[in-house]
Every structure is written in structure tokens, then in C-alpha cells.
Queue: 4 jobs
Job 1
Amino acid sequence: MGIEVDRNRKTFVPWPSSEECSRYRIHFARQKSLPMTALVSFPGSGNTWVRYLLETASGVFTGSVYIDRRIISKGFYGEAVPPDCGCTAVQKTHGFALEGSVPARLAQRTAEVKLFRGRGILLLRNPYEALLSYRNFLYGGHTGFAPHSQFKGPEWERFASQLAVVWKELAATWINYTRGHEAMVLHFETLRLNPHHDLSRLLDYLGISVDEQRIGCVLNHIDGPFRRPQSSQKLLFSSRDPFSEKLHRILDAVIHDLDSMLEKRGWDRIPIHLYKFYKQNST
């Protein structure tokens, strides 16, 4: 189906310098015309990039339960409206992950599942790489990097071991406390490999028609405005594994546990062969 857009509100042109793609705009949907739909992920999992892909592929702004003025300045205008406006395609949330711990009570853990009435896209990324990305964000923002010293020592060990559990439990909450087809899983790694396929799946889930010419423009501008530049960090981590043996045991275990949950639910399982650092993967 098509989305009824509000042509009286602000729009954004994502590719103004492209002769082929500059005709495409991103709009708000008509107020209260769309259901709330979570785009839920552990921090560092590519949530902002997925929002960029969804906005440019669908022509509809995405929203958030937060307000980040840095991304509003890049044209993510849905960031500035209430998440329950019914005018954005999905709404970004990191759930309880930003607290850095798992709530003790089930009611607290499932609060956002209930808020979104179980409707959501669970974005999963290799926790090894999500932890590195989140650490970089905490010290360097959307496109910067943490100092190399922040990936070793007792504080790094505590950070990574505690948040590995949060990564698993946040995803487990959406896997185990939603029903039927009201939610879906999206793997960051497979989206990177085959964006056309996964974007088509996302638009189908959201009930938005696929425009192949528009998708072509998305694929030609795939990175979006917030991709981190190449740095010496990638080279450093290829020669020095920032994860100790203890952290490998913890992270490998939570990956295995979550993969079993996905299999039980009947959702796409973790693409373990694409998980760098998992069981010492080098790819």
C-alpha cells in the first residue's frame, strides 16, 4: 500500500546534487495514520544507518524516543516529533540498554514491548563489533573514535562483560515477549551484504510499496551521512584482539544463547560466519 503523506509539513531532499535522484523527497506521513513501530537495537548496532535507509527507501521520516539534534541537522526531521505522532515509519529506541544493566523486574524489561504493542524491528549486530562501535560513540560521537587506551584494562573488561549480557537480554525480550508476525528481526551483517533484499523485507513489513528506481538511488548512496571514516583502529584490532579470553567466553556464550532463541522463535538465525571475533573468526 502507499503512505498518505502530509504535504503541508517540512520535507527533506537526501541527494540534492544527484541529477538522477534529486527528485526524491522524504515526507511526514499524515498525523496518526501509522502505528507505532519500534526500531530497537543495542547501541552501536547501526540504528541511525538503518533509519537513513528506511527514510530514503520509503520516502517517510523515521522517529525516535530520544531527541538528538546532531542528526536533526542532517535531515532526520522525524527526530523532533513525538514518537506517538503516527507520522513516522519507525521509532528508534535502545530500550533499557542505555541504563547499562538489565532491569530486575519483568514489567520493567517489557515496558517498551507493551508501549509499542509488540510491534517492532529488532536490529541485531555482532556484539563484538557493537561494543567497539558503542565505545567509539561514547568518546567520539557519531563519526569519531575512542582512544586506543579505552579498549584495554579493568574498566574496558567491566564495560564489555556487563553490556554483553544487556545485548542478549534486550534482544531476548523482543524475541520472547512478542507474538506472531507483529515483530521481525533484521541482521546488520546481512543487510550490509544484500541491502536490496532486506530493504524490500522491511518495506513489506511496514506495508510500504517498493519503488525500484528509488531503491536504486538508495543503493547508489548506501553509506548515509554518519558512517565512520577509515582509521588506524581497524588495523590495530586486526593485529591486537581487544577482547580477552574471558570476554570471548562471555560473548561467544551470549551469541550462542540468542541464536537458540531465534531458532526456537522461527526467526532468521544469526549469520555466525559473518561475526568477526566470534570463536576467533578472522573474517
Note: The chain has a mean pLDDT of 92.
Job 2
Amino acid sequence: MKKWVLSLTLAAGVVGLAACSGNGGDTIAKSKAGNVTKDELYESMKEQIGDQALQQLVIEKVLNKEYKVSDKELDKELKKLKDQLGPQFEMQLTQAGFKDEDAFRDVLRLNLLQQKAATKDIKVTDEEVKEYYEQKEPDIDVNHIIVKDEKTAKEVKKKLDNGEKFADLAKEYSQDQSAQTGGELGTISRDDPQMDEDFKKAAFALKEGEISDPVKTQFGWHIIEVTKKPKKEAYDKVKDEYTQELKVSKLDQDSVTQAMKRELKKAKVEIKDKDLKDAVAPILDAPNPEDTTDDLKSGDNKKDDAPATDKEEK
């Protein structure tokens, strides 16, 4: 989730800035104190987020010409996020400032375009993909009930063993937001670094439909229910998907920035608005990692060749 949260409020601003262009004299708000025109709104938004908004719009325009993200790819990625967040998906969009799911899809599409550009020259071997496949476990869907102490956890487990419904007990006992939805956590991944290790270990040891004994984690005591545990798909069916996942896992901020720099230079981007002339400068002026390495090596050599000081000679 964190991969896209930072872009959300900016994306809302981009939509607004684009909507304000054209027909600048049109009145968009009236009051006894005076009217607000599209020009005034545009200038205000440009002053506040202009550089960032224009940067995103330019990158999207450039990448759309060179790379394609199909609706099928977008739907698949969106489903992953919905599965991971479960009932919290809508809340996350609202908190991030998105008007609706369509607005979020636009940002998600841009993220996937950036991924494709940044992974263009990354190579992975068949051996790496095969090893990744062997180690990867399918994601599972889980519910949980979390309480503060072991005594309460055992009490809940006893009620479950006696036939009471998991969702009802989650609403009654659970001490986190998932209580509102009967304990639903959505989909979890074995390799999710944000998920507690003790929780994952207990959850992935369960069979589909099985409920755990009380499990202690850093957050409290859990009762875990696995509602869906898919079988591992055939290697040939997931090879392409896993290859891309591996490539993405090799990305860092520098490699993404360098990819955007390459694409912007190739597109010969020029900013005509003098107020926004530096919109893409942070990307175009970003130093190449190779140059930094060369500078460090050069500095080491200079240090070796420098004359010794009196203190060193002694």
C-alpha cells in the first residue's frame, strides 16, 4: 500500500489542475463577496502543487507513448490491492483524498507504466525465477480475533469450539478495526515484511477452514481463521508474472529515477510556462549512480596520492 499512498493527494491535485485549464474566465463559484473563476483556481493550484502536478502529467504522457498497460493488467493489480486491504480498501482511498476508484485507477496505471520503464533493462535468469517459484507460497485469506490476554483468547476459542460463529465473536471481542467486519483481514502474503512473523507462521500452518489455538504476537493474542488457501499454480502458468515480480523487487528509488530521466530526455521535454520551468528538473538533474561511484574512486586515489603531512611522516 505504501507504494502508492504518497501519490494520492498529488494525484487529486493533478486532476484538479487539469480540469481548470481552458475557458479560464468561467465562474466556478459565486458569492456576495465576489466570484471565483477557473483562472483564479488554476493559478492557486499551480502555485501550491504546480511543479509536482506537471511533473506527473508529463511523465504519464511520455510513458504512455512508449509503454502499454492493459485493462486486464490494471484489473489484476487492483484486485491484489483489494484482496490485501479487504474491507479497508474504500477507507484508504477516502483518507488518501480520492474521489472514487476511477481516480485511483489512473494513479495505479501510472505506477505500472513506471514499473515497466524501470524494469526494461533488468535481467533475471530462469534459475532465479525457478527458485522464486519454489520458495513462494500462495497468498491466503484470513480472519482474526485479537484480544489483550491469553485468558480471554482461550475463552473465545472455547466458544468457537462449541459452535459459535467466528464473525459474531469477532464483533464482540476483537480490539481492532476488523471487528466491524467480523474479523476480516483480507489477503496476506508470506513475504509481507509488514506482517508480524509469529502471526504469519501460525496462519500459513493452518488448512483452509481451520481455526488456530490462541497465538501470541507483539500486538496481543489472536485466534486466526483461514478462509481461503489456494493450491500452488503450475510453474509455466505463473512464470511471466513471477519474472516481472522479481524484476520489480530489484528496483530502488535511484533506478526508477534514472529510468524516468532516460525517458524524459528521449522525449525532449521542454517546459514553456516560466513559473513551472523547473518541474522536471529534479529528475533530469539527478546524478547517475555510476558518476557517484567514479567520484568516490577518484577521491580515494587523490587521498592515496596526496603528500603526507608532518604528522604522518613522523
Note: DSSP finds 14 helices and six strands in the chain.
Job 3
Amino acid sequence: MLKKIPSTAMVAVLFALPAAAQEASAEAAPAVNADVAFIFNTLLFLIGGFLVMWMAAGFAMLEAGLVRSKNVTTQLFKNISLFAIAGIMFWLIGYNLMYPSDGWTIPNVIGQIFSPKSIDPVGAGDAAAGYSAGSDFFFQLMFCATTASIVSGTLAERIKLWPFMIFTVILTGLIYPIEASWEWGEGWLDQRGFSDFAGSTLVHAAGGFAALAGAVVLGPRLGKYRADGRMQPMPGSNLALATLGTFILWLGWFGFNGGSQLALGSVNDAADVSRIFVNTNAAASAGVVAAIVTTQLMFGKIDLTMVLNGALAGLVAITAEPLAPSIFGSLLIGAVGGVIAVVVVPLLDKLKIDDVVGAIPVHLCAGIWGTLIVPASNGDASYSVQALGVIAIGAFVFVLSYAIWMILNATMGIRVSEEAEITGLDVSEMGMEAYPDFVQAK
């Protein structure tokens, strides 16, 4: 007779199979030259940063494909402008706030805000850290920009440009760096054992909470919800672009998760980065398959847009812990993320929360799932602390974002006029169209 396996042991088998292999490889790892480690660690930051920067193109293509043709130019503009704003604000304020050198005292925080950090040639601090300060700054900046990209898609097709850019200044300069410092800046959540390897909550759910607050204040697009309560579909302009954007994001995610290992200077680090790549890809694949099956069962037909979001939800879900799970565990984590990406959409419609690209199900909801499931594979994490982190970050980002959106709405208005929305933001906000009419010359 087979011996019954305890449920906790079964979870460990499903989610954390590579643990023994990791311990064995750690014992056999040879010593590494410090200069060589410095070079490879720095290279990992730079290559990871390149890939995450490429995700900005993925967000732009995804959103351009999922909005209607009359709003494509505006959406493209928002993506390049938010990236540039993040690049300046994270240097000016955010980087210092995220990594406060002397702790979170009021005088120190004020000093950090008004003393942008210089990225100098290699110094003693760089050598001790094992990588260059410039490479670290560049890599962390890309995460900051990603958080703002999440907000862009949700609020598409009805928000004014200037209020959006003002909010982006505050999000990238203050909100994101402060909440991210709670974990990655050795803040209070880190001290309690909160674990978010590459940012399922710190980046993705945070962006989702900011987007949710904006969507509540902004309201749905005209005609999205009928008087009888039914939802009016508003198909995107170009599913080819949306699919291309998804593949670009999938590629960039290897830098997002792999670079978050923060080291490539040893045999063990190289093995861990490769394991992260495999688990990241497995979760995305499972998210796609789960979304295919779920849309078929729920709607009777496969929905490509939800399948694309299934891939992204799988990626978001595995981001909180892409190293510790087994491949099978990564498949389970990603599959649940894919299901979440589908089932949350009709729930939002019932609440009349209009999310144009599905960023709230993908980044907020799948991000929460990925963060909460971390202890299943990482024995150093606890479910209660993970839940505490999600609640604290969610409350901080949502409440502050909601207040800022309300202030912007009261002072300058955040929504375009009804006429401008009907005409399209490309004409009303930008004065140019992504797909101008072509008149054949006679």
C-alpha cells in the first residue's frame, strides 16, 4: 500500500523541486575572481535593463493595437512621454528615495529629494557592491517606467494628456520609489520577511492600483455600458500590433526576472538566471493555454485579446518568485494567472470599471496572486507577511493615487469633452492621426 503524502509535502514537491539541486550546486561552486564577477554582474544589469526598456515598445504596441484607431497616436505619445518622464524623475528624486542611504528620517528624506545622486566612475562603493552604480541605476529605472506604463493602457481613450503626465511625474518620482523602498530599499516590509523577487506587487500590482484609482475617478468611455446594464464591446484597431506587443513584452520579461537575480559572477548565479528564464517562459506558456481553455468554456469561442493577456498574467504571476518553483510549479502559477486574466474582466464590467487593455486583471489581480503564492515554493516567506505587504502597498498606492486623481480632476479636469471623445483623442489632443485617410489623386 502506498504511504499517504502530507499536503504540505505535496506542495513542496509540486512547487519547489529544484531546491535540492540548488543546494548541491552551491556546495560545488568554485571561487570567482572579484574583477570577473564585477564585470559579469554589471553586464547582467545592463542586458536586463536593455530588455526591460524594450518592454516599453511592447506596451506601446499592445496598447496601440487594443485601442480604437482614432486614439492610437495619443496612446503612442503617452508611452514615449511617460518613459522620458520616468527617466528624469527617477534620477532627480526616485532613486534616492528608493534607496535612502541613512534611513527614513525626515531630514534625510528631504536631503535625498533635493540631492540627486551622481553616477560616477567606479569607486569603492561600486567595488564593494560587486557591480557598477550606473548599471544598477539603469536597471532600476526601467522598473519605475514599467509601473507608469501599466496606468497608460487602463485610462486610454478618454483622459487628457497633461493631467496624465502630471500624475506620471508624481508616480515615478514619489509613489513608486517610496513603496518599492519598503522591500528593495531594506525597508520595513523587508525587515518583516516580505518577498517579491522582481515585483509582482511592487511594480505590477502597484501600477494596477494606480490605474484602478484613475479608472474609478475617470469613469468609463462613452457608450461602454448601456442603460440596461449590458456591456458594449469596443474592439481594438489592430490585433497584429497587439500580438507583436505581447511577444515583445514576453521577451523583455527575461530581463525583468532574470536581471533581478542581481548577479552573474558565479556558476551558481548563472545557473539561477537560466532557471529563472525557464520558469518565466513556462508560466507565460501556461497562462496562454489556460486563457484559451477558459475563454472557450466561458464564451464558446477563443478570444485572442484575452489569450494575449493570459500570457502577460502568467508572466506577472511568476515575477514574485521565478527562481524557487519547479517547472511544474511555475506552470501552475502561470495557469492560475491566465484564468484570472479572463474571469476578472466580466467582474469589472459588472462594477462598470472600464479598463481598455485589461491591465487591472493582468497586473493588479495576477500580481496579487503571484505574491501570495510565494511561500508555496520559498520556505523563507510566510503567507501572513505576504498578505500584509499586498495590503500595505495596495492601500498606500490606491489611496494616494485616488487623492491625486481627484485633485487633478477638481483643478484642471482629467477627462476630455464628449465631443473630443467621439471624434477621437488623436484629433482633439494631438492634431494628427495614426491612420490618416488616403485620397487617390485624379
Note: The chain has a mean pLDDT of 89.
Job 4
Amino acid sequence: MESTVTELKFALDTFYFLISGVLVMWMAAGFAMLESGLVRSKNTTEILTKNIVLFAIACIMFLLVGYNIMYVDNASAGWLPSFGTLIGTQAEGADHSLESDFFFQVVFVATAMSVVSGAVAERMKLFAFLAFAVVFTAVIYPLEGYWTWGGGFLSEAGFSDFAGSGIVHMAGAAAALAGVLLLGARRGKFGKNGSVNPIPGSNMPLATLGTLILWMGWFGFNGGSQLLISDAENATAVGLVFVNTNAAAAAGLVGALIVSKLKWGKADLTMILNGALAGLVAITADPASPSPLFASLIGLVAGVIVVYSITSFDALKIDDPVGALSVHGVCGIFGLLVVPLSNDGASFGAQLYGAAVIFGFVFVASWIVWSIIKVTMGIRVTAEEEETGMDLIDCGVEAYPEFSK
């Protein structure tokens, strides 16, 4: 009887892991729709190409080396992993199958890389981006993942990040920031007199659909990170994670709506969408500890922060077409730093330390990789190519050909 119960729990937890991974995989569609809606029509096919190809690259590289770097045969509390290939072997007495763990983890890698895609949109060479994706998903992300979820030195220091506000989202933003600084702004984004010229996206219905898909996928992102569901305690915790995730997103949306109305007298849809995503990113650091009311407050503040962050990056002449640096970077850091307010096991010092190490490492490593790509194959298209649009230059296929006649 005991053996049957153990096997049933194993099967249920494995199935939950797999279904959660499927939900997170669906977030790839969300990023593709969101980003394609927020770029100009002449760059739509290229942004879609980037999103689906980066997902494939992440799956291949994490299978070949990334998972091994992050989780297999590493020293506890260490910093240098034991480099190897593939995903190792099933541990005796595990709660779920090794393959389900890999599948759940690999879609997180793709999520981190998707953050980079939107920030460098409309002026980066496609194959330069894909070359960076290979290195990021194979080495950079897995290494900082080992330091945290893999039982490395940041985990030993008490750093806490339930589902990846820092490990996934802030890391993606750090890589994106390095690329954006080396790449420069889109032509016409900033005037010589210091003005900021808005470059509207081409398809708000798609951007809204993408946000809703991401919102849905986030239940797998955060809910699956509980890891288990086969007993009353874990099942109850999963329920709270779902409620808090949803509450933070809703409150973040409302926060951005209020600020945009007060600031510009308009309900700016792009800010509203980013407000929902800001709430989701912020609560991801710990959706299991706060009450739903406190989770709502975290989301609300994140929704306010993201609006001012986006305008601040513009003021600094840092061009981010989709607001990824603000949503995933600034609000990722915010999410990490508020964890101790509801989780007694976390400390502000450990959270700040972990955030600084992850951001610093990923930014410097990414800067080096981007720089190598820049001097070898180049990272930016020519002014003429940018004017024509990336669809024709990189892909040869327009997303909306009937409108270009």
C-alpha cells in the first residue's frame, strides 16, 4: 500500500511539473505576440523569427550543457560548476522524474532570453542576436542558476528567489541592458535637442493578446515552482501562489492605469500592459508568503514603478522598444527586495547581495559576449537597412505585405 501511494505521488508531482512547463512554454507565444505588437510593422516578421528560434536554441543548448552546468554533480555552496553534458541520471527517492524537471527548467531559460529580444528590437542583426542566445542559454544563465537554485554560494548565503524575479527576469534584463548600451538607440528615437520621439507599435490587439497569454502562463511559472502538489500542504500552497500571482498582476495593471491617467490624462495601453507584467515579475520572487492583500500591494507599487522607470530610461537616452528593462529589470529587483517583508526566512542583506551578484555577473559577461560579436560579425544593421525594416533585410518576408504596396 505504501509503495502504491509513493508511486501515485511521484506520478502526480511529475504530471504537475510537466503541465506547469507547458504553461511556461506558452509564454513564448506571449512574448512573441507582445513584442510583435509593440514594434513597427516592418519589423514584425523578424521579431517573430527571433522569438521562435531563440526558444529552439534554448532547448538545444540547455539539453546539451546548460542543465548539467546548473544542476549536475556540483559542489554545495560553490561557484564553479562541474562542466559536463546532458542531464545526468535520476536520483533515488526523487519526488518527480528527472525529465520533467529538465522540461520545467528549460522553458525558464527561454523566458530569460525572451526578455532580451524586445529590448534590442528594430536595429540588431538577427544572427548576432542568435549567436548571443547560444552563449546565454548554454553558459551565462546556467552558471548564475547554479549559484542559486543549484545550491551554490548565493543559496548558501540565504538569497531567496521563489520563481525567478532575479534569476530569470532580472538576469534577462541585465543581458539586455548590456546589448542596448553597445547597440545604441533606434534612428529618430531621440532628437538633437534632447527630445524623446515616441515610436508607436503596430498592433495593439496583438500586444494585448500577448500580455494575456503571459498572464496565463505565469500560473505555471509561479505555481510550478512550488515543485509539489501531491499532499494537502503543497496543494494549499499552490492555491495561494495562484491567487497572489493573479492579484499582483491585476493590481499592477491598475497602478499603471492610474499613473498614466494622472501623468498624461490618458489611459496609455502600453503602460497598462506593462503594469500587469510588472506586477507579475515583482510577485515572482515570493508568491507563497504574502497574503493576497499584500501581494496586491506589491503588484500595485510595481505598476507605478514601471511607468516612471520607462520614462526614466527614455530620459537617459536608453532605447527599449517594449519596456523590458523596466518590467523585468527594475521590477525584478523590486520584487527581490520586498521578499523579507512577508517572508521571515529572508533578509534584506542577502536579497541585496544576491541581486547585485546576479545583475553584475550577467551584465559583465553579456557585455563581453556582445562586444566580441560586435567586433567580429557586428551587431547593428546599417541606417538604410533599419529604414527598410528588418523583415525584408533579415527574413525576406513581410508580416503585412498588403500594406506596403
Note: The chain has a mean pLDDT of 94.
